[in-house]
What we know:
Layout: H1 7-68, H2 74-117, H3 126-132, H4 136-166, H5 182-225, H6 236-275, H7 278-299, H8 318-332, H9 353-374, H10 379-386, H11 393-413, E1 419-420, E2 426-427, H12 436-455, H13 459-471, H14 475-480, H15 490-511, H16 514-534, H17 553-558
Antiparallel strand pairs: 1-2
Helix pairs in contact: 1-2, 1-4, 2-3, 4-16, 5-6, 5-7, 6-7, 9-11, 9-16, 10-11, 11-12, 11-13, 11-15, 12-15, 13-15
Amino acid sequence: MEPPRGFLASLWNFICFLPYFIGLLILGTIKGVILCPFVLLIITVGNSAVILGLWPVHLFYTYYSTLSAKQLGPVLKIVICICLPVVLLLWPLIAIISSILGGAAYGFLSPILATSQAVEHGKTDKFFHCIYDGTWDTVKRSFTIVRDVGDVCYHSYFSIMDDLRLQGPVAGKYYEIRLLYLPGMLIAGLLGIMVDMPVITVLAACKTPYMLFKGWHRLFHDCIGREGPFLETICVPFAGLAILLWPLAVAGALLGSMVSSIFLGAYAGVVVYQECSLWLGLCYIVASLSIYDEYSNDVLDLPEGSCFPRPQYRKRTVSRTNSRAGSFSRGASSKNPLSRANSMNAPMVELKALELAKGFFDECQHYGEILVSEGVVTRKDIEDAKSNRESGRIISIGLPAYGFLQVLLRSAKADSTGLLLKNTTEITSTNRPKDAFYDWFLNPLLIMKDQIKADNLSDLEEEYLCKLVLLYGDPERLKNSNIGLPPDSELRRAELDALARRLHGITKSVSRYPTFRRRFDSSMKIILEELGKKNEDSRRCAEPLTIPRSRSMFARIFSQKSLRGKTSYHGYDQEAQPVGAEREVEIQ
């Protein structure tokens, strides 16, 4: 919807919309006040019980993993063990305080957000949704938050510690600390804090009034013209609260500057250690003031530059810094200066993060059903994965990596610029969610897709790669399997092994995020339920299905003619039903 143009039209639209907005805000606030204590109690008690219950285990296992790590040298281990008590003692305190603040904010703001969403286009009985939305859903999601925190504290933590404990040194050299430069580090770090904290605090306090009035000016302008955050109905309550609470936001920015100055000044010790020079650490202390001043000017749209000098504090980046500065100066002085136009002016369909995650787990569930029905994956594999046993890596890591591989193969065959999901949704660098998480794993997957496309894999090589990815967590089973014979070329075999290892590494990193475990367990539960419906006897669920075949099961999965019905260029049947429905298999 385009906002009205002209002052009178904007003013009339604002007057008509104001009672509507105030009514939604009051209703959402009432629901938030009622639900906030319950949600706060659930999140605080649940997270505190998980954190405090696992804290003794975390204490012991952190020290055990650090002392057993092969990548760390003996001196570095001693330094880490001396510093660990501070982190381990602060962790429960910080986590519980964060749970209290996060639970209160979520319990109050979630009903307000849901109330605004209830009046969106396409919903029937909007009055009922205005009353109901954000009530029971908020309570259920608070239990989900506790579940995700438990998964992080249990599954993700032990996965990270096991990698630290079991991985060997890179290139045969372990990490070690140089004791000679520790005194210089401490001196530079303390001087940096002593200098940066008061100076940055004064700078932030001087710029605070400008930030306050400029923010109010912008918010009131958008409110009257129904632009910016006031354009969408769902954002209006938060934008209205922003006008009322803007002084608190400015005070928070001032407090944040004071806290960040501690870390900004302490980083001088890191510079001393990295550059092996106390003088360069002192130069950084002065340069850090200029860095903060320039950054705050950019945020507030003040004139560029700083009144503080910015000496060079790196040895190895002098030439690169000068070249970048020269290119920037040339670019800034050109006829086409850098534009500060708002990116929202360009229309773009952006995928939602939850929809994207659901697409990936649908892929995993789809191929899990096929592999279970073919007997490649048994009920025992699923039970081992649910019990967090080592033999369950075929399901917990192998199956998600297998789903990622099918997306890569499908995208490479379709000559897609991004990644094609099972529901024909294409993820590209322009419509992906703008979160750092998607940068971490999406870009490597795009690189792997291009590599697979360039390798031009044959059918036999695809079968072998699929076997590697799925059974990589069970070397004995991989060795005894006669599915997908390895290529004759050792170079080709090494390339496929490297692809499988990289894909497993990406999948392991993704599996450590909070929502992964919960969504993956839900997919496995659905697969088990469908498997129980199809089989008459639970014993047959743990045994391979006796289907006569003249080609490998991997070949039938990926062959476009393996299942009866229409097939697409994505490489799987779109009409065939998953496990739970009767289907015939054509044996080629």
